[in-house]
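Colleagues,

Please find the record for the two-part complex below.
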Amino acid sequence: MNSVNDRSRDIGPFVPGPDDDMLICRCEEITKGEIRKAVHDGMWTLTEIRRYLRTGMGLCQGQTCSRLVKGIVAKELGISPSELEPAASRVPMRPIEMEVFANEAPDEKEGE
Amino acid sequence: MKRYDLVIVGAGPSGLSAAIEAAKKGMKVVVFDENEKPGGQLFKQIHKFFGSKEHRAKIRGFVIGQQLLEEAGEAGVEVVLNATVIGLYQDKEVVVRKGDRVEHYKGNAVIIATGAAENMVTFPGWTLPGVIGAGAAQTMMNIHGVLPGKRVLMLGSGNVGLVVSFQLEQCGCEVAAIVDAAPRVGGYGVHAAKVARTGVPFYLSHTVVEAEGEDHVTGVTIAEIDSNFQFIPGTEKHFDVDTICVAVGLSPMSQLLKMAGCKMEDDPKRGGQVPICDPYGRTSLPGVFAAGDVAGIEEASSAMIEGRMAGIVAAEYLGYIDEEELKSELASLDEALNGLRQGMFAPQNRGKAIEKTEEGIDISESLLKNGYVADDEIEKYPGVTHKTGIHPVIECTQNIPCNPCQDACKKGCISIGSKITSLPIVVDDSECINCGMCVASCSGQAIFLVDESCQDGTATVTLPYEFLPLPEAGTKGKGLGRDGKVVCDAEVVSVKSMKAFDKTNLLTIRVPREYAMKARFFKVV
């Protein structure tokens, strides 16, 4: 078990910072303070942060903020950003309207 | 489901290069790109590229893009634009959004060449309109012909920051300063020098404190930082700017590879999340390859070679060529790529503070701190010599893989030798005929023709000039030093523009003799 997954580790209390109100995820309007608090709420992986706060789940799909979020979470946990597993990549890679996503082109003959 | 031998995602330098090689081997190739125009970032690159002739050196980036597209067309590559690949599955199924439909394709082999995305930094006010990425600035200027702003602060002194700063000036913006948190200029010294000599100040070990403005950027404050990246009180500097341009590195866009199940790793040296792959782009999934920035941030010239490698490896994977042919083709590409990965900016030297050139000469401290070589340092370099009559002065002071100047001089005045990173030297007893080809061929704009011995006590300096409007002969103005400060009066003697110069104009100015080795830019006052 590496230190990232060792949930019994004490990371200390949440200490408010002067830049906690700075927007990090612009698409979903999540601040640095919210991300730091989420870590203290027990969200220690980027996947958890994403589900908890919706960071990186807006229009740009984390293109701008995922690296920033990773840095903030790593710092709060006292580890290097490279120790954090990035969040899962899923289809669709780019934002897409549901009606388009559902509009599968009719298949030509199989095996063509 | 439509099936191709090879599906390539991304029509940038590496994707197109891969497509060309694969199609030449007889493969049926399709390239998808989400943009409305192909070429990736190439069509935004208006500067001349470095490298050797084989790497298309001294050709401007957008021209290389046109060449690649032509070659791809001739080779029978199908390039599909406005086609966003939204998914890649382990069995090489590629899901593509085209217009209002989603289509599925199957590639017997797949090459991911999706490139990279820009990094951002945060500071109070970073979400204000007017804070833009350097890539956005390039897109606005060079694709859409829109001015990004009137007065710009550039954050980042890597090659992107330096090149884009120069382009901003070319399109009429004023660059207020180039700022970098690092203590040394990150990009090529020659790129820094060509910006510095126009009068742009460099602030190293500085970063943005705050962007000001209510609903758009109206100013910015920067301050010096200590070695722990903490602001040093009292070092604040303010600039009235309407744009802050951010050029702080790139991250590979490797999500498709991760999604498909390729083994990934976090490698800060390669820019972030990258697939684990061999030198030819073979990932952990058979038949899935990665090429270009997505496999590790470098630059366009190496991306093109990596693309060709991936195309060839894919051809062998599907049996279009045998192992013998694979080996011989890769050997020559290995050599080419190795040639590009030399010198003080080579990937293996990233982050290292190199203090001496390969020749054993001290690297200019001033160049790394201020963006220009100081007057008392310049004479140390082998390209800077004195002679009676006109002669080239080559202010090339760092070992980078680039040698077009050597071939440019038909009289053999300039020599680099067999090692492409060596500093150019001026050959003894060679005869300069004032043709100017060396000045125009230097991608770093670091070559000048100097005549220190005009009869009337003056000197002439011929310099590369890529700004409009072009001054006319007889125009009086000021000579600027390497630091961009006015050093003397100057008068334009002649302006040469030839097809062979490829849009680099040669401006010859007359200055007092004592400024022959000091005046390096001309400004109409």
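Chain B has three domains: 2-117+250-340, 120-246, 374-524.

Comments are welcome before we finalize the supplementary table.
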